[in-house]
Amino acid sequence: MGSTLRPGDTIGILGGGQLGRMIAQAASRMGLKCHIYCPDENSPAFEVSAEKTVAAYEDEQALTQFAKSVSVVTYEFENVPGETARILEQFVPVRPGPLALKVSQDRLEEKTFLSEEAATQVAPFIKVDNQAELEAALMELGGQGVLKTRRFGYDGKGQIMIRTPQDIEGAMDKLGNQPAILEGIVLFEKEVSIIVARGVDGTVKCYDPADNYHKNHILKTSSVPADIPEATAQEAIDMATRIVVALNYVGVMGVELFVVKDGDKTELKVNEIAPRVHNSGHWTEDACPVSQFEQHVRAVAGWPLGTPTRAHNVIMENLIGDDVNTWEATLLEPNARLTLYGKAETREGRKMGHINRLSPKS
Amino acid sequence: MGSTLRPGDTIGILGGGQLGRMIAQAASRMGLKCHIYCPDENSPAFEVSAEKTVAAYEDEQALTQFAKSVSVVTYEFENVPGETARILEQFVPVRPGPLALKVSQDRLEEKTFLSEEAATQVAPFIKVDNQAELEAALMELGGQGVLKTRRFGYDGKGQIMIRTPQDIEGAMDKLGNQPAILEGIVLFEKEVSIIVARGVDGTVKCYDPADNYHKNHILKTSSVPADIPEATAQEAIDMATRIVVALNYVGVMGVELFVVKDGDKTELKVNEIAPRVHNSGHWTEDACPVSQFEQHVRAVAGWPLGTPTRAHNVIMENLIGDDVNTWEATLLEPNARLTLYGKAETREGRKMGHINRLSPKS
After folding, report:
1. Domains and their CATH numbers in chain A
2. pLDDT per residue as tens digits for the range B307-320
3. Which of A8, B39, B83, B357 has the most CB within a 10 Å radius?
């Protein structure tokens, strides 16, 4: 499992969306080939990669052929089925490893790991499998909380805010009676995130934390430097480092953190981790010599990590749905850098591209 | 011929080497697709592009199909056969245009154009078609000169330095009796180059000039900023601008200039022009928000040019032949940015990649 790639070798990527596409673009720059595996035949990542496989994640024969054609496998999404990873691992390293997938696919496992193994603060949480357990859990957390499915939630989906008795009734039915957790409500001031990378050799490198602003539960902007005290920034770095070390992680990870003010004190609580390159790290592509995508490629290739220096201040803006129609105007802005994902169809809520607006480093 | 592309449209590129590859990478970032046309089935650019055609540049049927599948055609090398361009132009714009190809394919046409149409200084030159004309030309230029074939010369190939009577004998035989020119020897201090771009709307933008250092007649390093007086840098910009305006040019061009010291005076003479992205502009990829490759894509797509701001000082080093074996060491350098071209076979004199070493801007 200690394999190191050489230029000309091939990285296999599960998933063909914009994250896979940007990983492939970074890999090709360093002379590595990519083989994209994705069930969707219109995947944006196919257009920039040497090889592609269009097949289901459960197709053992296709997975075996894929694994035999590459030197390492990585992924652009955390919901890679465990069985998929197990099949691939018979042939090649899968990076980040299986523990990262297991932990990040299940909110209960994730919160337990974060608080017990990584010694980080999280919101209080209680396992909830049915309406009776929900009611008991609410008693314990003071009558309010956020009910979240343990698996497959993203962009605010699979969540119900419970503030009043009316919210409680039928709540588990609304979530399809899936296994869930109830989280205590955190009165956070804002969300920051940090992009951390760990190499095969155990080296850990962090980019500067970003201030994240969401709109309709979808990330809208990430601003760097984040407006937080230096000690808080250092605490974010320390927490992210503990997490990747505890996971024996290889690759880039996005760590989302709530900033909580308690009088004069500023504290951080981990919201969630994503075992992959992360939307809130897209600013690195233009503001840093080594982007999160190159960093991830270096890590999974067994190469030394790059220095995560930042050369500019930057605000990253996601282009969601019709936002993409501003592309022409953006090309005219002298300090704006436009990235489009090559998606044929614009849909409401779909991430179509992003803009990095640069300014002198402070 | 005034077509403007939209994201999702396809740029056709003649030539599948590293320049085509880097143009394709820049295009994909902005959501454009590329279709590479190259006779060599192992072309590095294929690996990063949505479509490819493996066919000869004389294959009218393949060219026609290619032209019908793209919105504009550009090229990575100046020796595109005139007939190839004429076939393509029946269907789509070819940018830069036919005049740029005609002029840059023939040293006699080039020097005549540069001195007469673009009002730039060049070394004295005389048309030479046979040994007798060579001897007459030498008389006129004081007995010394550089004999160069009019077509297909590069990296010092197709040139003979004539300094003594012994060099004269059989000189035209050595060049295969091809049509040639004799150029007066320019006692230049060094070579600089400038990357200039012109948009469909006539806007012209220049990057900072670079100091070029050659080894075995092949570019080894380009350093920016060039160590030349500010007035000389401005003169380089003015000359490059006159050239692209006189050619009604669309796209990026590399202009190589000799720096000649005459007492206290510093003068520039144009050595040659390349109607394409240029090796001496590879530094822009890491030192500028908008690289020469993105600038070329913007120009040929009919999009507004980007601002050619430079954020760092930089020395670009070509990795030629076995130089590429330093790739691992380069990954460890904190301020070095590595680009590899994905060429399977390392050969002596072959350009395998390059390094940009960044330092704070001066």
Report:
1. 10-94 (3.40.50.20), 124-183 (3.30.1490.20), 190-360 (3.30.470.20)
2. 999 999 999 999 99
3. B357
